[in-house]
Amino acid sequence: MSPRTSKQYKEIREQSREKIMMAALELFAGRGFHNTSISQIAKQAGVAKGLIYNYFSSKEDLLHAIIDRALAEGDEFFAKMTGLSDARQQLRYLIGQSFELMETQFDYTKLLTSLSLQLDQFPGIMETVREKYSSTLPLLEQLLDRIGVEDAAGEAKLLAALLDGIGVQYIVLHHDYPLEEMKQLLYKRYNLNERS
Amino acid sequence: MSPRTSKQYKEIREQSREKIMMAALELFAGRGFHNTSISQIAKQAGVAKGLIYNYFSSKEDLLHAIIDRALAEGDEFFAKMTGLSDARQQLRYLIGQSFELMETQFDYTKLLTSLSLQLDQFPGIMETVREKYSSTLPLLEQLLDRIGVEDAAGEAKLLAALLDGIGVQYIVLHHDYPLEEMKQLLYKRYNLNERS
Amino acid sequence: MSPRTSKQYKEIREQSREKIMMAALELFAGRGFHNTSISQIAKQAGVAKGLIYNYFSSKEDLLHAIIDRALAEGDEFFAKMTGLSDARQQLRYLIGQSFELMETQFDYTKLLTSLSLQLDQFPGIMETVREKYSSTLPLLEQLLDRIGVEDAAGEAKLLAALLDGIGVQYIVLHHDYPLEEMKQLLYKRYNLNERS
Amino acid sequence: MSPRTSKQYKEIREQSREKIMMAALELFAGRGFHNTSISQIAKQAGVAKGLIYNYFSSKEDLLHAIIDRALAEGDEFFAKMTGLSDARQQLRYLIGQSFELMETQFDYTKLLTSLSLQLDQFPGIMETVREKYSSTLPLLEQLLDRIGVEDAAGEAKLLAALLDGIGVQYIVLHHDYPLEEMKQLLYKRYNLNERS
DNA sequence: AATGAATGAGGGTTCATTCAT
DNA sequence: GATGAATGAACCCTCATTCAT
Predict the structure, then answer these.
(1) What's the gap between Cα B22 and its chain centre?
(2) With an 8 Å Cβ cutoff, are B164 and A168 in contact?
(3) pTM value > 0.85
(4) What confidence tens digit (pLDDT) does each residue in D125-142 have?
């Protein structure tokens, strides 16, 4: 029972924080922010209610931490894209990662989508999300233009909506939704199949 | 002296019920169901809290009444479609009405979209929404097929997602979203412009 | 449609008042005063909620009206007793009427018994009930004395308790309670059987 | 620094639970279940309203906890009886304890008596109380039989009613009621006086 | 770092009572 | 004499948050 090193402490802290965030993510995504109580989160995380306030100053603060991480992880997901030489490859990568994200980060996707619809209630997030939206569009447009799509500006808007729509429908129908088929449809439409 | 006639009473009831439903719709859409209190609805409707329970047995019952009406109004919006002779006209009508709905029935659209993402919490609604989804798809497919689209089945899924995606983005960005432009893009893509 | 005579009016009034009191009696006895709502009474009586306030100034006032009648009817029940010449006959009559009262005026009995246990809450009734109690005892004592019971004072107290206890048990067990048998036991104990 | 030991927590819980139950008992007995509010209980117990729900899932659950304890304590009161050799001693003990119970556990007695009259509203309790009633009777009969009472079956029913009646009258008249005298009357009637 | 008992504002809901007709 | 829509206080209960340990 020697005193823990500060490194050990840090690790413990990290673990608890992590447990709480994961529990909260699952519940916020599944039941909605306002319909999830701190007690439920504590139980799901296997910690005492009070501990949550050692790491997060409020329920909203906890939500913000989750969102920040979601956005960061989202960025990571698309990070390698600029390394790809070819516009066609980049677009394929971007679309592929979008689907990957929906599937493997379902809770994040669901939570962010839900929150998007109630942005006015979370002013802190509003700007970030709007920026994402408005920075993605030019990128898409550029890529579409470089692969020879005619009305690249218009097509970019359609593609953006399409990806969002697929996300929503996947959230709603989940296992009944033909996610893989939708990806292939997109690949085909933009001629993105490997060796084609 | 004498009590009001039952017709008078019915009218009074109708009006109050209406005020309450409109207030609730606006708040549910704007702040979310769980983040809206009965007190807020009462204040917005300009009635006493208790009166709401003369018309709805619970907050959830009130929500259901709103949803039922939303679905009914949605059906009305598409009702005339079958009267149109031409598949191209029908598709144009369907898309046009979708946009009309988003714009003029913004609150209904927003509420239903939000609830879609949390269907498991409102079991009564679940089936209805899933049915809508699964009955719309074949219809789209049929129309697309009849206007000579190649992979009508795939294209129908894309179009469905597209419309949903446009809805979501319109909800999020609202006045900043180029709704009219999106409609024209869709018309163009399916060759639906009048006299074309 | 000639204007009703004041006599007709009076009759109508009487009828409505009666319906309300009967409905209230049944519900107060069955569910308790505090667990019965004005709405329930109105529904049970088949009148509008508001009408109740034409006849009674408050829920409590309605209760008091019922109690007053109950006490009056109780008095009636024992009224003929003094006409009887013989002490033995009088006692038999008193006991017999007690049982008759429990059986045919079950709701009144139940309501009064319940209220007795909560007398402090209905100060208006308190004194009346206490008086009943304390005026009945000497009467019993006198009768018992006149039929030759030894410790008439003590026996009177026992008999009073006994009658109350039978009432309570009859309320609790109701159809399972051997009311008739109890009466015979009492008759036998005080030698009150006809031609004996 | 470290959290309290679970033993400390248990003790704290025990105390708070106790305070709440005692406050509720007093109020339920005094004002009736439906006429007692959670706020009143909290105030009487000296705790916050919300705390009550840390210990009891609902107002009814709190009532049930009290009843369960009342019945348990009642059982304890009569537990030693079977240890007594003589039937006469047993009967004397049973009667004596009945009076002791009324006097020292006045609130419990009052609450249970009141609830008895409204059994249909508390279905969970119904059976328990009926069982008590129907198991006590044979016991009384047996004892009376063994001390040579003639119609033991009938006498048992009278005695049971008598004890209930005394209870009710004691509740109603309380300090004005000659409880001790009644006990002596019973002892005398069944010849239960010590050294007799 | 961690616990969970405790608080009290505010949630959904009920209900005695009023009042225009 | 009668109706029932409307009110608002008070009900039971939930929950984010605090705090002693």
Answers:
(1) 14
(2) yes
(3) yes
(4) 778 888 888 889 999 999
